[in-house]
Description:
Elements: E1 6-12, E2 17-22, E3 28-34, H1 43-68, E4 82-88, H2 94-100, E5 109-114, H3 115-123, E6 129-134, E7 138-144, E8 147-152, H4 164-179, H5 187-196, H6 201-209, H7 213-217, H8 220-228, H9 232-253, E9 260-263, H10 267-270, H11 276-279, H12 289-303
Parallel strand pairs: 1-4, 4-5, 6-9
Antiparallel strand pairs: 1-2, 2-3, 6-7, 7-8
Helix pairs in contact: 3-12, 4-5, 8-9
Amino acid sequence: MNSELYFIGIDGGGTNCRVTLQDKNGAQLGEGISGPANIMRDGELAKTSIMDGVNKAIASANAFLASQSSDATVKPITASQCIVGAGLAGANITSAKARFESWDHPFHSLFVLSDLHAACVGAHNGKPGAVIIVGTGSAGVVFAEGKVTDVGGHGFPIGDVASGAWLGLKAIQHTLLCIDNIRSPDVLAKQVCEALGTTNADDIVAKCAGFSTHHYASLVPCMLPLLQEANDGVVRIFKEGAEYLEAMAQQLLGENTYNLALIGGLSKVYVPYLSEKIRARVQACELLPQQGAIKYAKAVYNER
Length: 304
């Protein structure tokens, strides 16, 4: 029987769950990707996504190890050998984290932190620094003097300004205003109607009643070409989002000298709209969020 322990890091957001599997020496063996893993919005879906991503990472690792060995008796890795660090959207909400941690999981150990905290640990490799994530959702965090402080991350629709979900919502609101002739119909409204498959306001409202964050965020790809074309309506929306991110960055950094990492699918889109002062503090991440989650899990496990 294979008695080795392995480490798994999870970066679980509102759209994707990314999984990395390493051996105890830090060598990467396998990866997996699956669906949404926001434990505040849908804990059961998050568990399904996590298991799907973990199973893919384990299968990937086993295939790799088999290809590296001529010993046909090598035992495959199992979930029960894996110490898991799970950086999950929604884990910053105490009640959501407590519910999730009651899960009768199949792993050797499971250590839960927010996706934002995992990203911060990874981005600065455990050193003081700040992180803003802007993807399906948005949030900020700063780690300094052994303390982690969150800014934003209150969840869509009451928070997550500048996020993909927020952008999609703003585009739909704009489209409904156009349909009602409160604003002049334009190419953005046309693109949104095409994406939703209707030009009828009632149909749009009915569709949105069943939308989750990733449904709203799915409209962003039709907005980005218009942003590049400097479409007035789209630029206005992105500038509003950038103003929020600028204010968040100023709050996180204060008068300190540490750096800021920007993470998420929309982070690069917003950079040109930030001030020179903030852009000068932006640095590339040292490690991925999944690797940050592993670093966290190792630290907690070794302290036991």
